[in-house]
Amino acid sequence: SQKIEQNSEALNIQEGKTATLTCNYTNYSPAYLQWYRQDPGRGPVFLLLIRENEKEKRKERLKVTFDTTLKQSLFHITASQPADSATYLCALPDSGGYQKVTFGTGTKLQVIP
Amino acid sequence: DSGVTQTPKHLITATGQRVTLRCSPRSGDLSVYWYQQSLDQGLQFLIQYYNGEERAKGNILERFSAQQFPDLHSELNLSSLELGDSALYFCASSVTVIAGVGELFFGEGSRLTVL
Questions:
Q1: How many angstroms separate the CA of residue A28 from the nearest CA in chain B?
Q2: Residues of A10-19 as b/e, b for ≥16 C-beta within 10 angstroms?
Q3: Other CB atoms closer than 10 Å to residue B86's CB: what's the count?
Q4: In angstroms, rounded to a whole number, what is the distance separating the alpha carbons of residues A44 and B88?
Q5: pLDDT by residue (tens digit) across B5-15?
Q6: If you average pLDDT over every residue of chain B, what do you get?
């Protein structure tokens, strides 16, 4: 099954800066990759889906890249705000047919005012 | 509000007991997924149902079982509970059976505490 690695250490950045989170995966390269946001004690909320042929996708202050050669996705939040503080999860479909989505353990982002 | 409803929100029980967690998916969504999230652990996929049929299975213990009913709501049954079963249990739903190509809508979770 897919193994996903996200930086388990919390990322602290200053308000207004760009936060960059990394998601690395092993095994096969999926055709899709998703990013979710999770607040403490809450369910994850979908943010973006990127396809392997898209390389980059944007939504407001969010940008996601997908490098199938490096087996890596980068998630950027520009002009970060304290309200962006949360845990961000990347998720990939399993090689077994896309029914199963595997989540990384997430990176906790703390935006300091 | 994701539109996915989970009950109960909190549950405290003793080892050896059995509990049932309930999930109502978003209106129109045919797929239901169950995930377990232990303290400081990632989301662990348990099982998926599509329109009443089991479609994918993860690392679900034999003590756990699930089903999806004709009205599309789902229940996760946990029996012979152990301390290690204490976790947040999330239900998610999607329109398609193929989770990886579309977004999952998660409920707020059921927090199970086994004493």
A1: 14
A2: eeebeeeeeb
A3: 17
A4: 12
A5: 999 999 999 99
A6: 92
Tens digit of pLDDT for each residue in A15-56?
999 999 999 998 777 888 999 999 999 999 999 999 888 889
Strand A11-14 to A107-112 pairing: parallel
Q: Of the candidates B45, B107, B108, which has its C-beta nearest A102's C-beta? A: B45
In this structure, what token pair is assigned to residue B22? Answer: 């309930």
Alpha-carbon gap, residue B44 to B6, rounded angstroms: 17
* Rounded distance between C-alpha atoms, residue A27 and residue A33, angstroms: 14
Residue A102 with chain B: CB contacts under 8 Å: 45
- DSSP one-letter string for chain A: ---EEE--S-EEEETTSPEEEEEEE-SSPPSEEEEEEE-TTS--EEEEEEETTT-EEEETTEEEEEETTTTEEEEEESS--GGG-EEEEEEEE-TTTSSSEEEP--EEEEEE-
Check B100 against A94: CB less than 8 A apart: yes
**Percent of chain B scoring above 70 in pLDDT:** 95
Q: What are phi and psi of B84, to 5 degrees?
A: -70, -10
